[in-house]
Structures are given as structure tokens and as C-alpha cells.
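One-letter codes give the sequence; the fold follows as C-alpha cells. Both lines appear below.
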Amino acid sequence: MTRKIATKRPRRASSPVGAAAAVVLDPASSAPLHRQVYEAVRGAIFAGRLRPGSKLPSTRALAAHLCLSRNTVLGAYAQLLAEGYLRGRIGSGTYVADALPERLLLARRGLAPQPAPSPGGADLSRRGALVAGAASPFRRAAAPLGAAGWAFQVGVPAFDAFPAIAWGRLMSRRWDRSWRALLPLHEPQGYAPLRRAIADYLVTARGVRCTPDQVVVVSGAQQAISLAAEVLLDPGDAVWVEDPGYTAARSALLAAGATPVPVPVDGEGLDVAAAGRLSASARLAVVTPSHQFPLGVTMSLGRRLALLDWARSSRGWVFEDDYDSEFRYAGRPLAALQGLSPDARVIYAGTFSKVLSPSLRLGYLVVPEALVDAFVAAKALADVSSPSLEQAILAEFMAEGHFARHVRRMRVLYERRQAALVAAAERELSGLLEVGPAPAGMHLLGWLPAGRADGAAAESAAASGVRCVALSELRVRSAGRGALLLGYAAVPEDEIAEGVRRLRTALR
């Protein structure tokens, strides 16, 4: 009699198709795409959605599933393989490791993870306490998309109109051609061809007086203001800031130990005369003269000249945040404050977050020649340099004319979306919210009836799946009628209509 030998049936791994479905990216994240893929795969492993031994999809298949370039997924897989989360089998594919690194580490040490201490209980330095206390604008987790999509998130560009094909082609070409040169490259001041492209653009489109040697590439507008505070301010120095104004700029100043002095904003922009009365010894003024955030007014020529005269006579500095000047729908874009005088004591800042995507983490400063070395040194100490590959791609994107074409397309698209928001508000929000057109920008102000609290209105809107910012959140000393900031740039027209309907329900 032949004896049957029982064999253990091998464990069946999840299919690569199912594994791809377990990798979910967060469209609201500002992290680079390769990092998002890395975190998504790693999170799926620890959540149990990808079990030990599971086969992952190929890099090409996962890239197609997520609508990303294959190089992005290759970078994420390489990091996961290096850290031991994945293992590769020649000729077979990539699999989740049977033993995860954290489990091995905890088993060896016999320890469980300890919760991080709260800032209040930690032994922080005075500077550390300032930083911890000033970080409140960044503590909020990105909210998931509501029922009305991106309605009405402020400061978010049209992700659905991102030039993905042109960007992907440039990324692939650049990587194939020069990855060996780009990987070890780190230039604290920024990739030279990108600085040339930025200078050419600013001279032509914004009337900025600069050469490529004055351009410093930074990781967005937030790093720009942080570097300016580090280079130009001592602890306790007074800084004029707009009220209402950009909260994160005030936070960066507080973290640097400076003393923000809220200055009222009227129809002509920051009130320079009032600023002098509030603090005659200010060292820096932080302004958004072309399109004041959040009120949308333009600083008058008289105020601009008065601000430059103040900086010259007091040996102070002006930080000009030109955050969304590309999007002006009536007439030509206004010339920058920096370009009004050849000896202007102005630090000019711009960003690609509003034009392309915040996940690029690329912006720029234009600084006077005498300050270039100091700003480059501060940048080098902060993070050595901004990512070389993204800078190289953006340089070619600008040099080949894609950037200018994209800006022109976005002006048309945003003007159309603004008109759709105004029309929907007229139909649905009469007596609840007063929303009128604006000549520039990516958001509108919706004014509430007198006496209505905008904070409560914003909370009601959030409960209905609509995200907006209460104007009172951006005020320090100033007061006045309540309003909601309604961002429209990222919202397709059908979602605008749905968002307005939900906003009507919330405000009623």
C-alpha cells in the first residue's frame, strides 16, 4: 500500500492587484510623492492590509494604478527594501518581509514604544518653547476631502489641471540623462539653471530688479520668512505685520523670538503711518502688497513709496510676499514693490506652491547683493539644499515655456471658477453670505450679516462637508464684520455648486 505523505499547504499571499488597492495616497499631503508612496506602503504593512509574505505589484503596475511616474515608485521601493520592510526575489518579484524591523527591534530590547512627551512637560530651551508655541497653524491634520471635494479650501491650486504629462516627460528625460550628476548634487543657493529661469521670469513678468546671483531657492514661502527672520532679526526686535494677515508668517517670527506688531489694513493696504505710531523702532515689515492676504486689496503707490522711505531712513527691511501675483484677471499683473527703486531694502519672496503644487516644496527669495552670502549660509544650515531633481525638472519646465503656458491656462480656469462661485452664491446664499467678484487671487471673501460670528459659521460649514476659514482667525487686534474665506481654485464647477448648496444648509 502506498502511503500518502501529508504536505503542508503553503500560505496563500494576497494578490498584487489587492496589494495595489491597499496603497492609498493622501491628496492633501504636502510631502513629496515618493515619500507618500513609502509611507502608504509602510502604513499598509503595519495596519495589516499588506500581510507578511504578500507579493507587491511591480513598480510599473503600481505607478499606473496611482497615476505616478515609475521613478517615483522605484524610489519608494528602494527605501523600503533598504530598511527591511520588503524583500526581493530575483525573477519573482517584491514581497513584504516576514519579520518587520520594528518588531525585531522591540523583541531584542524588550521595550514597548513610549509616548512622546508633551511640549509643556519637556525640558525645552527658551527658543524651543517659542517654536513649540508658535507652531499652532501647522498642528492641524489635513482634513479628508468632504462631500463637496475641495470646496472651499484656501490656498490650494487646481490639482486636476496640473501639467502631469509635460512634467512626467521632463522627469523621465532628466532622470535618464543625468541622474548620476543629480544624485550627489547639493547647491545651497539653488540649482544654477533654475535660478536663471526664475530671474528671467521675474524681470519680465513682475518687474523685479535682479540677477540670478541674487536668487536663493528655498523650500517654500514658510522657509523664506524663517530665513529672513534668522538673518535680519535679533530676539525682541519689532516687526510690522498685516492685521488681518497670514498667520504662519507671524508664527515664524514668534519662533525666531521677534515681536510681531499687528498693523491695520485698509483699502490702500498696510497703514504705514499707523505702523510708525505703533512701533517706531521696527526692524522689518512683512507685507503682501500686490494682493493682500486675506482682504485682497492692493497697496497704493503712496503707501508703497512711504514703506520704502521708512526702510531707507530707519535701516529697516521690507519682506515682500508675492504669493499669488500670477492670477490677476483685470489688466496686467502689478509690478513688484521691490522693483520701484534700485536701492530698495526689500527681500522679495515667491513660491511655486500656488502655481503648481505645494508638494514640490520649492520657492525663492531675491535678496540684495550684500545679503546673499548670509542667506545662503542660513539655507545651508537649515537643510543644506532643496531637492536637486525637482529643481532640475522645474528649470527645464520654465526654460521650455511650459510654466508660462500653464500660468495662462490657470488664469482662464480660475477666472471661470470664480465666476461660477459668484453665480452660485447669488442663487443660493442671498441674505446668508455676500460674495462678490475680485480682480485677482484664488479665494473670495463671503461677508456674513452684521452680528453673525464667522467662527461658528465655519464650524457649521465643516460639519456639512465644506472647508473654509473664518476671517476672525486671521485677526489679532482688528475687528469688524465676520466673513468666510472661500477658495475656488481647486474646485471644479460641479463641486462649486454642491459646496454652495451645503454651505447654504450650514448657514441656515
Summary: The radius of gyration is 26 Å. The chain has three domains: 16-106, 164-400, 405-507. The first strand starts at residue 55 and ends at 56.
